[in-house]
Amino acid sequence: MDLLSKKRNVDGNFTEDSCFWAHVEEARFSCGQKGSGGGGESSEAKNRLVEFQRYVMEQIENYAVDSEIFLRESSYMVWWKEFQEVVAIVGSGSSSLVEYMKSGRYLSYGSP
């Protein structure tokens, strides 16, 4: 399926990676570790969060996730809120996902 077809079908209640929500929960756990300080564990948590951001952006760019991930109370949006709080506390570089989310482009995800 080409990207245009995928974009049209974003609201079809599908997420291509069946482990997407498990990745979200792991990222939420990593936010807790990153926010708690602590040397090596915090460094590993940072690496997992960087990798998670790349993974999510790839899924978004390929229209491989349902638009429901952006619902206010979804686990993904809960992670996004937690992640912003961690970044405010410990600092972090920018990423394409951070820019995507902060710009509000996610609000039109899947729109023609």
Automatic annotation (TrEMBL):
GO terms assigned for molecular function: carboxylic ester hydrolase activity
Domain EDS1 EP: 6-88
Protein name, UniProt field: EDS1 EP domain-containing protein
GO biological process: defense response
Short name of one Pfam family: EDS1_EP
